[in-house]
């Protein structure tokens, strides 16, 4: 399919103006726009028949659609995307909107969750739409970690932090993992936690993996040098040590070395699995999401999400705020409000930290 930017480049000034007027009218009124209505607002004097021809061309390009045979046109999803990306004129945030948002976050409260809940309510009230606030992930030291299998492709990790904070995150576990393997991974990690953050815990596991790798290399070196063993997929995660002429190893202590290497390999694979668990845990979705409607809304046609990330003092993205509503949102007004709110939240959280 042709890119919307290429389609826009191929349109002349009249087609662009007709398209823009149709979209702006639809976003304002939610009604199909007819050719006679457009002729009264265009910058050049043209007949309704000429406008109809232009609208038919835009419909052919997939930018407009006719709800009914005799009705006017409305923008398609592709047309809205092109309008938002290329033709949207963004307003400044109105003083009254800014004051309403700022009023909810004034005060000396240090409870970030309470602060973000208020921000979500204010954003919803100002925009008259559902709001979404994704809270920042906690970075304190850990006290306990637990994995809960929900389905073959969905799991929950429960993180208990040393400051008493509890957080749940959903993630997709590595293929083949079972509830028992998850319990084993949690037990191993809880023995190493000692107040470490997730990132620090991942570093410890990385060191364990490196140590096991070096130990295996050291034990296998003599076998490989003598031609009694060879590496398969060397350097990759699924590497194996293939032993040849096992009879030649009997009575020379070789079998003990092979058993030791096999044990180290098992330990190495287990730690790799645990490292993957930690990676998925760090990247997992925060469950504490404030949404004005159910998640099903995102998969329904006729809905839009305007979202902006917010950052901490180190310019690291730690969360997001957004607005969910029908496709005919007043984007020119909503976009700057969401952007302003995200910047405000970022500043407030940086100040509190």
From TrEMBL:
Keyword list (alphabetical) reads:
Repressor, Stress response, Transcription, Transcription regulation
Q: What is a single Pfam family found in this protein's UniProt entry?
A: HrcA
Instruction: Tell me the leader sequence span.
Output: none
Q: Which SUPFAM superfamilies match?
A: GAF domain-like (SSF55781), Winged helix' DNA-binding domain (SSF46785)
A single GO molecular-function term is:
DNA binding
Family matches, as InterPro entries: GAF-like_dom_sf (IPR029016), HrcA (IPR002571), HrcA_C (IPR021153), WH-like_DNA-bd_sf (IPR036388), WH_DNA-bd_sf (IPR036390), WHTH_transcript_rep_HrcA_IDD (IPR023120)
Q: Which top-rank group of organisms is this from?
A: Bacteria
Gene Ontology terms: biological process = negative regulation of DNA-templated transcription
Residue ranges occupied by any Heat-inducible transcription repressor HrcA C-terminal domain in the UniProt entry: 114-335
The record's section on NCBIfam families has: hrcA
Could you tell me what this protein does?
Answer: Negative regulator of class I heat shock genes (grpE-dnaK-dnaJ and groELS operons). Prevents heat-shock induction of these operons.
According to its UniProt record, which protein family does this protein belong to? Answer: Belongs to the HrcA family.
Can you name this protein?
Heat-inducible transcription repressor HrcA
- Native source organism of the sequence: Marinibacterium profundimaris
